[in-house]
Amino acid sequence: MTKPDILQVGYYPEWDQDPLDAAFNMHKYFEADDKDAFLANVGPSIKGIATRGELGTTQAMLDACPNLEVVSVYGVGYDAVDVAACTARGIAVTNTPDVLTDDVADLGVAMMLAQSRGMIGASQWVRDGSWEAKGLYPLQSRVWGKKVGVLGLGRIGFEVAKRLAGFDLDIAYSDVSAKDYAPDWTFIQDPVALAEHADFLFVTLAASVETRHIVDKDVLDALGPDGMVINISRAGNIDEAALLDALEAKTVGAAALDVFEGEPALDPRFLALDNVMVQPHHASGTYETRKAMGKLVYDNLAAQFAGKPLLTKVN
Ligand code: 8YV
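Above: inputs. Below: predicted complex with 2-keto-D-gluconic acid.
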């Protein structure tokens, strides 16, 4: 049997790449110098697209591949894929939910703890000799017993809240409706009211046109100079310009961010700030989770071309 032709949008580690190469003809878009010519050449033969959450697909890719059947996303977020356009063309879209939930929650909580307790600076204080030369490290802010607002109590938000309950944080959340699986936590639907209530505001929403800039100047003002915002979702959920203004003016106390507009080329204003922790979009970046994500990308493609039901279809 001839191997199906797949357009590969971005890099995968070798333990994912090798099985994909064995089962499919992988056409590596990310290695092509002339992307338009590459798409024009391979597009008509392409039956599947393998991409990553933050890379998604472009309109040019969809237009160049008239025989496309499936887009398999390595990531839970599929906001970078035009799912409505895919559905209209009969193209299935799959993602990698569940397997990354706990690791993403772990990183979010770790960022919150590390930023609150000044751990990056404290490590530097030891390494550069400041401890010996200057003495005790400046005091930092307590975490336990404070109030957290979780904006979006889906799978990842739930795991964040569950972890923070172990730190004796008072937990409130916002979502489209109160969740019966969260009877002990306070439902505050309005994001401004949630931020007003919270010391720590976690952004754990699936990104969409509706949630774009849901964390805006009003939410940031409500969070206030002692508040911290933690984003492990998508940059677009926060008005980044408003956040930079607030961090510079210290009308918001701090931020811990794994995602940025235009990443990996983030706004240089972030780098001049000492009240922000920056991470390179690696909340799902453990061997265990990334291997499970890669397997799901493969399994969805294999199912499609074996005529079997897709494992994690989103449309
Ligand atoms: C990325 C993600 O896909 O799950 C998501 O939506 O954004 C991430 O897991 C990951 O960085 C791999 O590119």
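The two ends are 28 Å apart (CA to CA).
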